[in-house]
Design goal:
heterodimer, A: 353 residues, mainly alpha, three-stranded mixed beta sheet, 11 helices, 4% strand, B: 522 residues, two-stranded antiparallel sheet, 16 helices, 6 strands
Chain lengths: 353, 522
């Protein structure tokens, strides 16, 4: 069955890919930093340096995920409905992890006790780990294709037929490990880029070590993905670019060029995502082999032309504005931090009884 | 329990919980922005202290709103996938707009505000809190537009090929009469809630600063040989400069009490208009709000408004009832003897095939399918709608009374009494409007039953066909436990910072050197 999407449908498929890329590249280093707080920060002040590298921006980065979700809902209701209900328990895990992680950043400094702070640090670390792992498994399943079927003979309604445990194939598990490792690498490089002094050195040393692991595991996943679920020449080109980005990042960390290293992992993350979305065209990451003549794809899942048109105008006007002020906020907080910049805990005054 | 009930409980719990934080965020962001503006214009320290103090309470609350908000956007697809598929073409757009126009603005500029005290020029820093506050309030527009579509699905048509509702007129979605009154009503409710919090906090501190009463207490307590308590209440931290703590709290308390009065009046007016719209587009909800079984009014008699009923609300004769004659007719129709349809008449009409809103295009087009879903009961749970409606109004009215009382104590340099009953009143003050918000939403969503999209799609047809009851139960238990634990943590943090009182402030200077210590860091 040939699929002939309209221009608007293609634009929105592309825009949703862009939103996911924005989310993965930006929140990717937040998750990396989150996971690394207890391991790279040896005392409270060092941990505070780490938290403060992402403190002003993590929430804005997370909105990329919300916008990706909202845009999928609006532009491809069928995609949103079937995907989100298919991944019910994985998404539940992600939501709980996001709740704990988000509060960890905001609440850790609100009490002076070390047990409180270190408890939240553990929450940030585990939360960031779970989100990265589950998204890695999830995206790998989009590459494989989530099997769907028409529900109760109703043509437009599709349900996932795989079940929870079917999501954990070896390829998907490797994908989970790769995303965790990639975000650790990306996050460590971000820390190196944003800090000075001892913590900077420690982050670099960690990045060098994890970098080799990412190149190995990521390379294996990319090869596997191209051999088993290939998209032809474009897929191989993207593989080369993604792997090249990782190698460049690793080399640049060693060469003390943190900015270039960061560009390396950012490009690699983006290109891996592009590869996944290429594979997800036109079936949106679903396996339609048992849907007969009623597949769930970019055409059948799509919103009406009117809705897509309205949304397109909004995107054309507001996406550049959002990019502008987000970039500006990174500029405002461009300075590198070290423990010297972190104020002492203000002595707690006695509360009024 | 069946998946539908479980999914409903989950939506109810997560949404009511999320809405504990949203109203405070919506208005407190603006209140903090106003305090900072006053500081910017006058240079008076007391406004800066208020900004930092209430800013901290705002952020503790805001974080909870953010993290529980993600659940909201995702659970439509997770638990209500058939609803999402059916209305996504109309309902999804406001959610996407909300993220793109509101959430980015709010989160980015809030980050700039929190960490930007020493990195941004004062004026830009002030602009940051205003943009964050505006972002929050823009989100209210879109989420209420989405909700109003569920109450009164206008601006959409039914497409038989795709078997779903589709956007016909986005302008009509954004000018839904339900939205036009629900938006100001919700924003006023937010103002009532956030101002009540400010009044409670500053009112409590003012009572503690009430020297006359404190001296009396000190005597009473020392006779009780409770020396430690006396020390704590009478020893002042020695301030280096003239202490403006009292002036600051007084300003905040008066400001908040006045804001409560104004928003209280606004709530009555917008609520009244909302009621009239509701009578037109969801007559059953109005009848359910009143437990009005038999049609009343319209023949010169007028329907009475029941203030309180003792006995069952099943249409049999109640044991005891307080009623105001003709008031329901006026509230529902705007005339003193207007006709208000009762539950029994509406039920019979629906059984005969009448639409909830006969003029609604989506309902007309989908009617055949709607009947095929076999909606056998058209009645919400009457005790829930009846009592939640009264609790909403009652708690709102009580809040206005508290504001009046506070203003009375604060007149002519007066202070509230340093008495236990005042402390308890201040503890209850923010809870009143907070729960009024909850009851208002419980009323409006339970009163919509059995529909998820009024008169069109029944709730029972909206759940995810592929999700099992066990899965929903797992998440329901998970959210409830996590939310419960977080509530304890959040309230303790709020109380800690409320007790700490106004922070001392130092002149804010922009950081220029890489080695400078930041004035603020997590």
């Amino acid at each position: 069955m040939t699929v002939e999407p309209t221009t608007l449908q293609l634009v929105w498929f592309g825009l949703i890919a862009v939103l996911w890329i924005g989310y993965l590249v930006l929140e990717g280093f937040d998750y990396g930093v989150g996971m690394l707080i207890p391991y790279l920060g040896r005392n409270d002040k060092e941990r505070r340096v780490l938290v403060n590298t992402i403190g002003p921006v993590w929430d804005g980065n997370e909105v990329w995920l919300l916008t990706a979700g909202g845009a999928t809902f609006a532009a491809f209701p069928g995609w949103y409905a079937t995907l989100f209900s298919a991944l019910y328990l994985p998404l539940f895990l992600i939501l709980i992890a996001l709740i704990v992680r988000g509060l960890a950043f905001e609440y850790r400094a609100k009490r002076p006790e070390q047990s409180w702070k270190y408890g939240w640090d553990r929450g940030a670390s585990i939360g960031s780990f779970v989100v990265s792992l589950v998204f890695g498994v999830g995206f790998s399943n989009f590459v494989i294709g989530l099997p769907v079927q028409v529900a109760d003979g109703r043509q437009g309604v599709h349900v996932f037929t795989g079940g929870f445990w079917s999501l954990f194939s070896p390829f998907a598990l490797l994908g989970g490990v790769v995303l965790v490792a990639l975000f650790l690498f990306h996050g460590a490089i971000f820390i190196a880029l944003k800090t000075r002094g001892e913590i900077h050195q420690r982050a670099k040393a960690f990045a060098e070590k994890i970098g080799l692991g990412v190149i190995g595991a990521g390379g294996a996943w990319l090869l596997w993905s191209n051999l088993a679920y290939g998209t032809g020449v474009p897929g191989w080109i993207l593989l080369v670019v993604a792997a090249g980005g990782l190698v460049m990042a690793w080399y640049m960390v060693r060469a003390d060029r943190d900015g270039w290293a960061f560009i390396g992992t950012a490009v690699s993350t983006a290109v891996i995502a592009i590869g996944i979305f290429l594979r997800m065209y036109p079936d949106l990451g679903f396996d339609n082999s048992s849907t007969m003549d009623a597949p769930l794809n970019i055409v059948t899942a799509s919103a009406s032309p009117l809705t897509l048109t309205i949304m397109t105008w909004a995107a054309v006007v507001f996406v550049p504005i959002v990019l502008g002020y987000q970039a500006w906020s990174y500029w405002v907080f461009r300075r590198r931090l070290s423990t010297a910049n972190i104020p002492d805990d203000s002595p707690q005054r006695e509360p009024i009884p | 329990m069946d998946p539908v009930s479980l999914a409903r409980w989950q939506f109810g719990i997560t949404t009511v919980y999320h809405w504990f934080f949203v109203p405070v965020t919506l208005a407190l962001s603006i209140i903090v922005a106003i305090f900072q503006t006053l500081w910017f214009r006058s240079g008076d320290d007391k406004y800066l202290r208020l900004t930092k103090f209430y800013g901290k309470l705002f952020l503790i609350n805001f974080a909870m709103g953010v993290v529980t908000g993600i659940v909201q956007e995702f659970q439509f697809g997770m638990n209500w996938s058939e609803y999402s598929r059916f209305v996504g073409d109309v309902f999804g757009a406001p959610l996407a707009f909300e993220a793109l126009l509101a959430f980015f603005l709010e989160s980015t500029f809030l980050g700039l505000w929190i960490f930007g005290w020493d990195r941004l020029p004062k004026k830009i820093h002030l602009l940051a809190i205003w943009l964050a506050a505006i972002g929050s309030n823009i989100s209210a527009i879109f989420i209420l537009a989405a909700n109003s579509f569920m109450q009164n699905p206008q601006g959409a048509v039914y497409n038989a090929v795709t078997d779903r509702a589709e956007m016909a007129d986005f302008g009509a979605v954004l000018t839904n009469p339900v939205l036009l009154w629900a938006l100001p009503h919700t924003l006023m409710a937010s103002w009532l809630t956030a101002s009540a919090l400010v009044l409670a906090v500053s009112g409590w501190h003012l009572a503690k600063l009430n020297r006359a009463d404190r001296a009396a207490d000190a005597v009473a307590e020392s006779t009780a040989e409770d020396a430690a308590a006396t020390d704590a209440t009478t020893s002042d931290p020695a301030p280096a400069k003239p202490d403006n703590t009292l002036a600051a709290h007084r300003f905040a308390a008066v400001f908040a009490a006045v804001a409560m009065m104004v928003s209280g009046v606004g709530l009555v007016l917008t609520g009244d208009e909302s009621g009239k719209i509701m009578t037109q587009v969801q007559p059953m909800k109005m009848a359910a709000a009143e437990a009005l079984y038999e049609t009343a009014g319209g023949d010169g008699s007028g329907a009475p408004f029941s203030i309180l009923t003792i006995g069952t609300l099943d249409g049999s004769r109640p044991i005891f009832v307080i009623e105001v004659p003709h008031l329901l007719s006026f509230l529902a129709t705007g005339t003193w003897d207007g006709k208000v349809q009762g539950i029994n008449e509406l039920k019979a009409a629906y059984a005969d095939g009448q639409l909830v809103d006969p003029d609604n295009k989506l309902q007309q087009a989908y009617a055949e399918h709607m009947r095929a879903w076999g909606v056998d009961t058209h009645t919400p749970i009457i005790p829930v709608t009846y009592w939640s409606f009264r609790l909403m109004i009652g708690l709102g009215m009580a809040s206005i009374a508290v504001a009046l009382l506070a203003l009375w104590f604060l007149r002519k340099d007066g202070l509230p009494p340093n008495r236990r009953w005042w402390t308890w009143l201040m503890v209850l003050t923010p809870l009143g409007p907070l729960f009024a918000n909850s009851f208002g939403w419980i009323f409006t969503e339970m009163g919509r039953q059995p529909w998820i999209v009024s008169g069109t799609l029944p709730v029972s047809a909206a759940v995810s066909p592929g999700v099992s009851a066990a899965e929903v139960l797992i998440s329901l238990i998970g959210y409830t436990l996590v939310y419960g634990a977080l509530a304890v943590i959040e309230v303790r943090l709020l109380l800690k910072y409320i007790r700490l009182g106004l922070p001392d402030v130092e002149p804010v200077e922009q950081v220029t050197d890489d080695d400078d210590v930041l004035s603020f860091a997590y």
